Amino acid sequence: MKLQRLWAVVHKEFRHIVRDWQTLIIVLAMPVALMFLYGYALDVNIKDVPVIVEDPFPSLESAAVIKAIDNSELFKVTGVVRVAVEPHELFRGKGVKAVFRFPYDFAARLRRPLDPPAIQVLIDGSDQNTGTIIRNAVEPFLRQAVLELLGKTVPPVIEVQQTVLYNPQQKSALFFVPGLMAMILMMISALLTALAVTREKELGTMEQLLVTPLSPAVIIVGKLLPYIILSAIDGLLVLGVGETVFGVRVRGSMLLLTGASFIYIFTALALGLLMSTIARKQEHALLMVLPITMLPTMLLSGFIFPLASLPVWLQALSSIVPATYFLQIIRGIILKGVGAQELWKPLAALSGMGLLLMAISIKKFKVRL
Amino acid sequence: MTLTIETHNLTKTFGSFTAVDHINVSVRSGEIFGFLGANGAGKTTAIRMLCGLLEPTSGSGQVAGFDIMKETAKIRGNIGYMSQKFSLYSDMTVLDNMKLYGSLYGLHKAALSARIEELSRFLDLQTLHNRVTGGLPWGWQQRLSLACANLHKPRILFLDEPTGSVDPVSRRNFWDLIQELSSAGTTIFVTTHHMDEAEYCHRLSIMINGKIAAIDTPKALKRRMECSTLHQAFLKLVEGA
Q1: In angstroms, what separates the C-alpha of B51 from chain A's closest C-alpha?
Q2: CATH code for A49-150?
Q3: Domain spans of chain A?
Q4: What is the distance between the alpha carbons of residues B76 and B74, in angstroms, rounded to a whole number?
């Protein structure tokens, strides 16, 4: 009896979803589109950055270093000038990210070990990522190029052996697949449910549902179930594309990953439901959900910015963002293959958060009757 | 004569504003009870409390024999409710809306089909079964709302301004249906501000600023206010308040 009524609500909700096919297409295509976007745009290996060299007194030595710069993977020399009166002018050239300025006495000072020549490198800091990469690369690169030119080797003081674990090729896919999971599940679960519930309030259909003998809990569960299924489909899409196109394999237990994802979906649904008890119109719901769920999921969860780099007060804020815990869990499962015993803390935090939010939203939903 | 709706000092306040102020109403079984008042007089708030959509601030009441404070779930199974605004699913067809509400009220397959058939004949909805409700003219949407509120054969029908801004012919037709339902034994509790409709009611209550100013039959009201029409009686009461 109760099940039949619950099923009627679920069935109706599915109808709305299917009838609103534009939204459905967005919901299904968006994860895939985002995957490709992140997959190709987030490639941190930049190549052939255009640079200009100022060489006031060309010599065999400066020519050799300029050639080395041009031959490197990172830089491409797009111009050599004799004098740069106003260096800012040079950055107006197409895509120029750095200017290398050689001194007029470069060759002469190379021969005087006690008075080494200085090469000034001006870096375009307006593009922060590229700027940082150039800054980190340029000094060791020039040092090596000049050493090779002089035919010298410096005896090594220490030797550093780097071994990158879990993501040896530093593929960005391993970084964005878990992040996109967190983002997309939050988006579908929180945003779509908040909109769906608010829409019924706005149209007055919620009132009509509430005068039937159905309990509010049955109405909520019936409305949420289809979105749980949609979220699960999107989660599988992200994992599927991640594996087939970007080669991200889940190392740990698929069962644990599924379980954790459902806990996260549950938490996100509760958040969405909570927003919908506050919002009166769909626009309100949208404007609330974006800053309260989507932005923290992107910016404060450790998805894009490492948590350690955040100031203390933002770190505190990040500890109440569900995605923070979900990312710890799924990065652990997908990249390191760790099990439930290592992940019990974030799992417990996420579950607690979900239960608390759901309790609050059901209570608020009842009060609204 | 049994009472199906009864309230004692039913009150609802929103902050410092008293929307419904100690109202006492008793409605007899099978009666068409008109709930009149200007916009903002508290009619909708009162009706929503009786339907269990809103928790009363104080006072008590019974609907269909159940306490409106504690037994709202039982009340909801025994009433039908039609709100001011069309509030069925406009992206679904007429038939699908009826099927949905039928199942929400716990009707099963065969019984549900029979009931849908019966109501469709009564309300002339047969030819519209496969139409999407959003595109229907208002009068037909109202008929469908009436059908959906009636699927489970409720003992009491709450109609909140059912004929809001519809043309006089459709209004007349709609009231014919209401009277038919009433003679079949359904209690009708209806709010309106059309005085010509009020004439159809067996008894009327007139609500002013959250309080009930008068309860009587249309005839007795007119006599008491020394007016020839309900319209005049209503205005006299409001102005006297």
Answers
A1: 7
A2: 3.40.1710.10
A3: 9-42+170-367, 49-150
A4: 5
Cα B102 to Cα B152: distance, rounded to the nearest angstrom: 7
Report all structural domains of chain B as residue ranges with CATH numbers, in order of start.
3-240 (3.40.50.300)
- How far apart are the CA of A27 and the nearest CA of chain B, in angstroms? 20
**Global pTM?**
0.81
Q: Is the pLDDT of residue A218 over 80?
A: yes
Q: With beta carbons under 8 A apart, name residues in chain A contacting B55.
A: 369
- Distance from the Cα of A15 to chain B's closest Cα (Å) equals 8
Q: How confident is the model at residue A101 (pLDDT cuts 50, 70, 90)?
A: very high
Start-to-end Cα distance in chain A: 23
- Tell me the mean pLDDT in the region A284-293: 90
Question: Stretch A232-255: mean pLDDT, rounded?
Answer: 92
Q: Which residues of B touch A9 (CB under 8 A)?
A: 104
Distance CA A212, CA B105 (A): 6
Residue A209 and residue B104: Cβ atoms within 8 Å? yes
Residue A39: what pLDDT?
Answer: 78
Mean pLDDT across B174-198: 90
Provide the ipTM: 0.89
Alpha helix stretches (DSSP H) within chain B: 43-50, 72-78, 94-104, 109-123, 138-150, 168-183, 195-198, 218-224, 230-240
Burial of A35 (0-12, 13-18, 19+ CB in 10 A): buried
Alpha-carbon distances, residue B89 vs A203, A276, B86, B101, B136 (angstroms): 9, 19, 9, 10, 12
